[in-house]
Design goal:
It is a single chain. The two termini are about 50 Å apart. Helix 5 runs parallel beside helix 7. The protein has helices at about 20-25, 30-55, 65-70, 75-90, 95-115, 120-140, 155-180, 185-200, 205-220, 230-255, 255-265, 270-300, 310-320, 330-355. The chain is mainly alpha-helical. The chain is about 70% helix and about 0% strand. It has a single domain, classed as MetI-like fold, CATH 1.10.3720.10.
Length: about 350
């Protein structure tokens, strides 16, 4: 009797071919072929021109403004002279180390969130402590640091404060709003959440910013004063929360009904059903939409310049408003654009990695 086990033959792995990949992804039909060729021709035209402007015809960091006048490329001495103004604006020059350290704290908080998984309690403590340290460094009047008024906060620290902390605070508020709108037991709670979300999503961000700047201080209790910068922070948080809530509600809606019934059959209380069964799955489903909202909200923070808050776009304009450097606005905006590109690319890459991990 033959006792040998049958030999299983695995199918051959498809070999990667650049030609096949290009044919499938770039030249699959006539329209795709035209688009591909057009993009290649555009890159062949723009890339050498940009490279020449940045390096070949540019003036290096060791040059001066006189050399820049006769140069056909970028004037990098402008960045040597104006980088601190772009990053920190009118923050007192001798105290700009505080603004730099505060910015590094926020960047470090985001890096920890991306690179290391922490418990919810530890994450809350870390962000609350980091936020308090940020405000203490920027505001001063503690630990022997001289006080600096918020009207002197400009550039990168203001941008990070408004973009990062508003989105960080908007996420838990968005979760609460999504759960309130999704549930059917409490009609009043659901109606309030629905009304709030639809109202915020139905008006442009600029309207919300102006409401935060002018209306929010008026409804504060008598004798209570809120700084315009923090009023804008609250307005951004309330705006982003409505969009995040809708993203999470979309994740809740696509969950099979059986998941809710299974959680209910276990005899868990509602809060445990949500925290242990429903919400983790909903967040996983909604991750692409949530990160799209986060990246969009991060970039939309630049609109605060319209209400008199000076982020990096505003300080870049300050930098090339100097009569001796008025011709070099392109260098200033290139620096700001590079910051946006790198930070948004990191957020996008983290979102893709998180989607694969969960």
């Amino acid at each position: 009797m033959n006792t040998d086990k049958p030999h299983t033959v695995m199918p051959p792995k498809p070999s990667f071919s650049v030609t096949n990949w290009a044919r499938i992804n770039l030249f699959s039909n006539f329209f795709n072929s035209v688009v591909t060729i057009s993009v290649v021709l555009f890159l062949l035209w723009i890339v050498p021109a940009v490279f020449s402007w940045m390096f070949i015809n540019a003036v290096g960091f060791g040059g001066d403004e006189a050399l820049c006048r006769s140069a056909e490329g970028a004037c990098w001495p402008f960045m040597r002279e104006k980088a601190r103004l772009i990053l920190f604006g009118t923050y007192p020059y001798d105290e700009q180390w505080r603004a730099a350290l505060a910015s590094l704290i926020v960047i470090g908080l985001v890096a920890i969130l991306m690179l290391k998984r922490l418990s919810v309690r530890m994450m809350i403590l870390l962000w609350v402590g980091g936020g308090a340290l940020f405000v203490g460094l920027m505001l001063g009047n503690v630990m022997g640091l001289p006080a600096v008024q918020t009207v002197q906060w400009n550039g990168l620290p203001v941008f990070l404060l408004l973009a990062v902390f508003s989105l960080a605070a908007a996420f838990p508020l968005g979760v609460v709003l999504a759960l309130a709108r999704f549930q059917n037991q409490h009609l009043l709670l659901r109606s309030l959440a629905t009304g709030y979300i639809e109202l915020i999503r139905g008006v442009p961000l600029l309207t919300v910013l102006f409401m935060g700047l002018f209306i929010l201080p008026m409804i504060m209790p008598q004798g209570f004063f809120i700084e315009p910068l923090f009023a804008i922070l609250i307005a951004l948080m309330l705006f982003h929360a409505a969009y995040i809530a809708e993203d999470i509600r979309g994740g809740l809606q696509v969950l099979p009904r059986g998941q809710f019934e299974a959680a209910d059959s276990l005899g868990l209380k509602y809060r445990y059903q949500v925290l242990l069964v429903i919400l983790p799955q909903a967040l996983k489903k909604a991750l692409p939409a949530i990160f799209n909202t986060l990246i969009g909200g991060y970039k939309d923070t630049s609109l605060v310049v319209i209400v008199g808050i000076h982020d990096m776009l505003s300080t870049a304009k300050m930098a090339y408003s100097d009569p001796g450097w008025q011709k070099y606005g392109l260098e200033a905006y290139f620096f700001v654009g590079l910051w946006y590109f790198i930070s948004c690319w990191c957020l996008s890459a983290y979102g893709r990695r998180l989607e694969r991990a969960v």
